Amino acid sequence: MTTDKRKYLNPQTLATLANMQLRARMVVEGFIVGLHKSPYHGFSVEFAEHRAYGPGDNLRYLDWRLYGKTDRFYVKQFEEETNLKAHIMLDISRSMAYGSDEISKLQYGSYLSAALTYLLLRQQDAVGLTLFDTEIRTHIRPSSRPSMLNNILSHLENVTPGEETAIGNSLHHLADRINRRGLVIIISDMLDELDNILYGLKHFRHDRHEVLVFHVLDPREIDFDFDAQAKFKDMESGEVIATEPWHIQKDYQAAVKQFQSSLSMRCREQHVDYVPLTTDQSLDVALLAYLSKRHSAR
Q1: How far is the C-alpha of 298 from the C-alpha of 254, rounded, in Å?
Q2: Of 120, 161, 179, 199, which one has the greatest count of Cβ atoms within 10 A?
Q3: What domain range includes position 240?
Q4: Rounded to whole angstroms, how far apart are CA atoms 120 and 88?
């Protein structure tokens, strides 16, 4: 009996695997199996060598052998035409360590970063990794070399929560380091001032980068479903507030919804793709959003 790899899209199941490379591989393989069995059209995980023939393409680059196998016209692409440079930015600030269940936001973000790295390199694209909190802590420049997989996954395997959050500053600092247009993927709980976040996103868009934001929250950070009087401690400032959760639940939920709505709208105005995620969600939601953005960035 074969293993259903799609079950590893579940982050709780994924956490049982031994190492990050195995996790990344199982997520991607499960995702590809799911894609092939799904009604999604227009997506492919093989971008690097061919694309469909279109009017105006040079006939000398038609792949006649592939035509014989598929009865469709495809043209060969050159490396500079096909390769994408992707920059994965993972928020490692202290607030990302929160998790109401088995998976913290930082673990979820690490699994997503690992899966995206594996998928990008499989597509022969270049990928780099940036870890940040108040500033950039680790910066690995994009590369499509096979050795890049172990390099990035080893950093993700050992990632630990850092300091407070300063998303806007980190976005600006990375934008200043990138000298070629590419795809910027931001994975964060976005717990910062909205104007600071948007100012950083505008910097990327001004430089004509494609930008994809994964807004990762724990389910309890959205529903505030606590059933006893409690003390809540800010993981970054250390401030403690004692309250009865059911008294403020509706106001809290409304405030979170308003923040997500405002962030989504402001991203849309800047032509930035915004994808809200919770740590109990299957990772294929994020990977499909990535493929859609990857397709539009070609």
Answers
A1: 38
A2: 120
A3: 83-296
A4: 11
| pLDDT value of position 37 | 60
Q: Are residues 158 and 199 in the same domain?
A: yes
What CATH number corresponds to the domain at position 250? 3.40.50.410
**Residue with tokens 């793709």, as numbered in its chain:** 273
Residue pair 207/175 in contact (Cβ under 8 Å)? The answer is: yes
Tell me how far CA of residue 44 lies from CA of 65, 123, 232, in angstroms.
20, 10, 45
SS (H, E, C) 232-268: EECCCCCCEEEECHHHHHHHHHHHHHHHHHHHHHHHH
Query: Are 104 and 91 contacting, i.e. CB atoms less than 8 angstroms apart?
Result: no
State pLDDT tens for residues 169-202: 999 999 999 988 999 999 999 999 999 999 999 9
How many whole angstroms separate alpha carbon 295 and alpha carbon 117?
A: 16
| DSSP string computed for the chain | ----GGGGGSHHHHTTSSSHHHHHHHHHHHHHHHHHTSS--S--S--SSEEE--TT--GGGB-HHHHHHHSS-EEE--HHHH--EEEEEEE-SGGGG--SSS--HHHHHHHHHHHHHHHHHHTT-EEEEEEESSSEEEEEEEE--THHHHHHHHHHHT----S---HHHHHHHHHHH--S--EEEEEE---S-HHHHHHHHHHHHHTT-EEEEEEEE-HHHHH----S-EEEE-TTT--EEEE-HHHHHHHHHHHHHHHHHHHHHHHHHTT-EEEEEETTS-THHHHHHHHHHHHHT-
Do residues 201 and 169 share a domain? yes
Are 82 and 124 spatial neighbours (Cβ–Cβ below 8 Å)? yes
